[in-house]
């Protein structure tokens, strides 16, 4: 019994030296699948149309997702001209500060304009400092913000 176990162990040790693990290939030229005169290929992926529908639904759902963050409130008003004024402020803000977002929030009977989608209060403070000359009286608010565009 001992000799059988000992012979198995010895045979495993002897044959383990001849075993090799799979080698990772990081360069396509190492695969040697292209003819000598070509170094590119075309790949076509065919998928079910249901997968495209699912992908579109996921993308549309992600646009609606929001997280808690900070914005800078640059307008607050009510009355017959408040909506028109808010829309004008959003348009002006977006043209003056490209890359920054601005949204109209309606909480009856008030229209508010929130500028920026800041993840941290520090980021909102930097935005406030940047715009407070043009929008005096602006202040930081904690609110739901949209996810950044990738």
Explained architecture:
With 150 residues, this protein is α+β, with helices and mostly antiparallel strands. It has a domain of 81 residues: Alpha-Beta Plaits. It is built from four helices and four strands, in the order ααβαββαβ. The chain has a four-stranded antiparallel beta sheet. It is elongated.
Largest sheet: 4 strands, antiparallel
Average pLDDT: 80
CATH topology of the domain at 66-146: Alpha-Beta Plaits
Computed Rg: 31 Å
Short description:
The protein is an alpha+beta fold. It is built from four helices and four strands, in the order H-H-E-H-E-E-H-E.
Features:
4 strands, alpha+beta, 150 residues, Alpha-Beta Plaits, elongated, 38% helix, 4-stranded antiparallel sheet, 23% strand, single chain
Write the layout of secondary structure elements.
Layout: H1 2-16, H2 49-64, E1 66-77, H3 82-96, E2 102-107, E3 110-118, H4 121-131, E4 139-146
Antiparallel strand pairs: 1-3, 1-4, 2-3
